[in-house]
Design goal:
With about 100 residues, the protein is an alpha+beta fold. Helices cover about 25% and strands about 10% of the residues. It has helices spanning about 10-15, 70-75, 80-95, and strands spanning about 1-5, 30-35. Strands 1-2 form a two-stranded antiparallel ribbon.
Length: about 100
Amino acid sequence: MKAVDQAGRDVRQVLEADDDLYLVMPKIGDFAQIAFTVPPLRAGRARTFILKAKGYYDVHLDGQGEPQTEALAKMNEPGQSIRLAMKEFLKMRDRSSENIIRKP
């Protein structure tokens, strides 16, 4: 397994064990990239993965733009913060993929 943060630091030790260590990402844009080897996909099969994670999340607000009162009102709904994060991630991914030059 490989796990590195946005600065290229190895963060495996923090992520591997079920303990009281947390990967702290205090700034907007901080991330961890995890890669691991998977068995070959057998013919006629599909692949699915499930992530089991624990910890906590402090919302980082930059205080710019219009207040998103509708989104904030839904934050007490179970899973809402994850759905909102996924929506924002997909928008960010789509914007970044527009800058990739693909060879014909």
